[in-house]
Amino acid sequence: MNWQRKMNKALVRFTGFQIERVGKAAPPQPVPEIRPPADPATDRLLDSPVFLLSPVRSGSTLLRAILNAHSALHAPHELHVRRLRVQFDTSLAAKAMAALGHNQADLEHLLWDRVLHRELVRSGKRFIVDKTPANAFAYQRIAACWPDARFVFLLRHPASIAASWHEASPDRRTPEEAALDALRYMKAVQRARSALPGLTVRYEELSADPEKVTREICDFLGLEWEAGMLAYGKQSVLEKGLGDWRDKIRSGAVQPARELPSADQVPDALKPMCRTWGYLT
Asked: How far apart are CA 69 and CA 213, in angstroms?
């Protein structure tokens, strides 16, 4: 067997590959415990980060552009930090980190916090706002990672969300598929709303009276309202492919929302959520 080990070492050295016996199963990886920071004062650099939890196509890119226009808030493009992973290449690495009190999830939280903190420091502002829609699926972990996080929930008429989701990629999903796919996000946001404290705002109200809604958000965040939020301008944070990129967003000012659908235009699959969110009686 010694010659096989030598051959594998040579293969790894010169090609980066090695030979493994077919059918050899990798040992199962334990699920790391998800827990708050052991010492928040040293384990976290961010202070009171803001997470905008919303379904897709609900106006979150508009709202983040508005918030980014505030002198204290930095709201960059969707960051997807929850997809950043840490792995142990050897058991010794895992043992060494365990001796320091870190499991895999702890180290990922340190990474997430560092990435967001670096982005915030470079902006020169006080608080970061992350609006990645998929964060709704990981709200429990986000709340554990940052116990001082603030949450803003953005809702929109479910049928309008579904219609906009279909229009965004009509060749990729039918109206029916768009409704069911968007519903996954709506359910995740609703679960987060039920479990976490926070402020709920509606896209329709933001479009109709942006000053009123943005004042409510500023009050919630403990900030002075700034009139410049309503004419947010053409910002560098609007990155194509990382959020909505329509002309309405790029206009630099809040535009009216589309007309609300009538009750008979709402797909049956979305009616329960419409009732939960108060769009249907």
From this structure: 15
Paired with 199 in beta bridges are 152
Q: Are 75 and 65 in contact (CB under 8 A)?
A: yes
Q: Report the C-alpha gap between 229 and 214 in whole angstroms.
A: 8
Query: H-type helices in the chain, by residue range?
Result: 2-15, 40-43, 60-68, 91-99, 104-123, 139-145, 158-168, 175-195, 203-208, 210-221, 247-250, 271-276
List, for residues 161-196, the tens digit of each pLDDT value: 999 999 999 999 999 999 999 999 999 999 999 999
Residue 112 tokens, joined:
């997430």
Could you please report the per-residue DSSP string of 157-186?
-HHHHHHHHHHH-TTT--HHHHHHHHHHHH
**What is d(CA 82, CA 181) in angstroms, rounded to the nearest whole number?**
20
How many residues can be counted in the chain? 281
Burial tier of 83 (Cβ tally within 10 Å: 0-12, 13-18, 19+): exposed
Residue 247 half-sphere exposure, CB side, CA atoms within 13 Å? 0
The pair of structure tokens assigned to 62 is 């508009």
Q: For 4-13, 165-174, 209-218, 267-276, which range has the lowest pLDDT when averaged over its residues?
A: 4-13
The model's pTM is 0.83
Q: What is the CA radius of gyration of the chain?
A: 23
